[in-house]
Each structure stands twice: as structure tokens, then as C-alpha cells.
Write a structure and sequence with these properties.
The protein is α+β, with helices and mostly antiparallel strands. It has nine helices and eight strands. It has a single domain, classed as Sandwich (Jelly Rolls), CATH 2.60.120.10. A four-stranded antiparallel sheet has the order 1-8-3-6. The protein has a four-stranded antiparallel sheet with strand order 2-7-4-5. Helix 8 (174-180) crosses helix 9.
Length: 195
């Protein structure tokens, strides 16, 4: 009989999940399904028009989620260390994605397949509690971000992101941050010079 692998609190995914559950048995059950991948810089995790068969947890690195428009890439998320990223509509509804997810630098990423997600959801009630808590946290952040992007000035959007995600400015290219903040790279440079 195989003994399940025990993960330590030094594991980034374990540490993240422990924010939502204190039961080490549940956490170990949860993270054993996440495969480790180490994609190089500029590698696609998903391309527009394909199915998103995985959810991703960025242990270390940077990825961007974007769609293409006539003006170029429109970045909707920059995932940095200890964050989740995925094309949720495609993943949950099992339909083609309108987004691309691509690494910005060589990254260490855990991924959870749709099949494993479905099995855990059906077999382990505590998994559902963890997922609900993670989604509540992410939806709250998303709602705040959407509100800021719609009503705040470019300077206020920059200040809010700098306050919430200061590491992003150390890891992601400024042109990608500018796209994420819905401003030109020149506007972002001008705002940054004022600080």
C-alpha cells in the first residue's frame, strides 16, 4: 500500500491553501492532484480557441492572460508568485477559450486538470469548501479591480495596483502592466516619474 505524500508548509501551494483550511490531511489531499510544470519564457499554457483543461497556480514566475484586439494584446490578468490563473469560463463550461495564457519568464507552476477537479469536487466535501473560499477571495479582488478600472483615473489605477501588488512592478514588463491598467506605456512612464 502506498502512503500518500505529505507536503510541508514550505510548499507554496500548501501555504496558500492553508489560508483557507487548517486541516493538513485535507490540504495534502487537495495538492496531491496538482502536477508540477516548469515552462520556459514565452510558452503558452493555453491558446485562444482551445479548451482550458487546467487551472494553474504560479509558485514562482509571471504569466499573462490576454485576448487579441485590433490594437494588440489586451491583458486581463498578470499572475505572479502564489496566484491562480485560468480561463474559468472555458475550464468550468468545457468550451473553447477566448484568452491566451503565456509565461513572461521561466516559471514554476502547478496545474490541476478538469478531470481531477471534477473527481475531487464529487468525492471530498472539504475540497468544495476550500474552492468556495478561494473563489470568494478572488471574486472580491476582481470586483474591486473592475470598479477601479472603470471609475478611477490612470493615476489612481496605478496607485491602487502598486499598493495591492507591488511585486508585479518588479517582475512584469511595464508594457504589460500598462495594458493591464488600460493605459499606454507612455502614460504609465509619466505617472511613475511623478512618484
Amino acid at each position: 500500500m502506498n502512503t500518500p505524500k505529505k507536503y510541508s508548509i514550505n510548499n507554496p501551494l500548501y501555504s496558500f491553501i492553508s489560508l483557507f483550511s487548517k486541516d493538513s490531511k485535507t490540504i495534502n489531499y487537495f495538492i496531491k492532484y496538482w502536477d508540477l510544470i516548469t515552462p520556459d519564457k514565452n510558452k503558452y499554457l493555453i491558446k485562444e480557441g482551445n479548451f482550458c483543461n487546467y487551472l494553474y497556480f504560479i509558485e514562482q514566475g509571471v504569466v499573462k492572460k490576454y485576448y487579441n484586439s485590433e490594437k494588440g494584446e489586451v491583458i486581463t490578468k498578470i499572475g505572479i508568485d502564489n496566484s491562480f490563473v485560468g480561463c474559468l469560463d472555458s475550464f468550468f463550461m468545457q468550451k473553447t477559450s477566448m484568452y491566451n495564457i503565456k509565461t513572461i519568464e521561466k516559471s514554476i507552476i502547478r496545474r490541476l486538470s478538469f478531470n481531477d477537479f471534477s473527481s475531487m469536487r464529487d468525492e471530498h466535501p472539504d475540497f468544495n469548501k476550500i474552492i468556495i473560499k478561494i473563489m470568494e477571495s478572488n471574486f472580491s479582488k476582481l470586483e474591486s479591480l473592475v470598479a477601479n478600472l472603470k471609475k478611477d483615473s490612470a493615476k489612481e489605477r496605478y496607485k491602487a495596483l502598486l499598493s495591492e501588488e507591488p511585486t508585479m512592478f518588479l517582475k512584469a514588463p511595464l508594457k504589460d502592466i500598462a495594458s493591464f491598467l488600460r493605459m499606454s506605456p507612455e502614460t504609465l512612464s509619466r505617472i511613475r516619474s511623478d512618484f
